[in-house]
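Please check the following.

. . .
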Amino acid sequence: MRITELTERHAADIVTWRYPEPYRCYDLDGADPAYFLDPANGFFALADEGAELIGYRSFGPDGRVPGGAYDDAALDTGGGLRPDLTGRGLGRRAIATGLAFGRERFDPPAYRVTVADFNARARRVVESLGFVRASSFASDIDGSSFGIYLLDCRGIR
């Protein structure tokens, strides 16, 4: 896996992805592909060795969920895998690839991820990468429960 620049074709593809329950909340119905292309939103493509789009990673405020308490002490990161690839054990490698890219590109003192409490798969993956749950909150959007996890980057350079 590798991180590449996100293209118009990638963005147009991502907004068509539809996930099965209980992950339907990750669908991007109505999303504008241009949002993913704006450099201020920090999106990058996650590609396989053949350069096929398998997911995306984001770095910056897009990884925040309304209702959480955020500051500038850590770089928010998020992402997603193509729906047909979820549940196949690729999450850890996808996130680790993003973290390595982010360390080179942004050199953050720490990373922060926000994970829906119902998403046990994602919680297991981030915890296996060394993230530690720092706080919990209810989303301002629909009251769903989330955890904010931190990973200190000092010492993993």
